[in-house]
Structure formats: structure tokens, C-alpha cells
Amino acid sequence: MKLPVIKQLTKFIEDNDQDYIVETIDVLENLCEVSSLKDEELDVIAELISNLYGALEVHKMVKEGKDKKVALNDFMKRVLGSIDK
What we know:
By secondary structure, the chain is mainly α. It has helices at residues 3-15, 18-31, 39-63, 68-84. Helix 2 packs antiparallel against helix 3 (39-63).
């Protein structure tokens, strides 16, 4: 996951609507079913999906009242904490 990407996507959600992100996730998940995709291509799609879900999670925290910067940092700490385990 890339914090700058999640930050940009969170801004997109604020300016537009989270439905665009949800629909994008649906499209990318559907693309993963293409049998001719190479592993590297699947990795890129998976990374995009992860960042999109991350942005939705950060947006949810902001809607619940967290400062955007705090929400971004808390989310990344949680992600990094789960990787370390």
C-alpha cells in the first residue's frame, strides 16, 4: 500500500463520491478473472485494489470524526503492524 495513493484516493472520495471507488474495485476484481493475465499484472491490480480499500477505510475514519492526517497515519500503522506479525 502506498500512502500517497491512498491520500489521493481519499481526496477523490471527498470531492466526488465513494461509489466511484466501490465500482472501480468491482471492475478490477472482475479483471482478475482473466486467465491470460501474468502474475505481474495481477500483482499490479491487487495493489490498486488494496489502495482503493485503504482509501475507503480512511474515509470511513474521517466520517467518524478523525482528522484526515491522523486517520491516514493510524491506518498505515495498522497495516504495518499486521505485516510485522
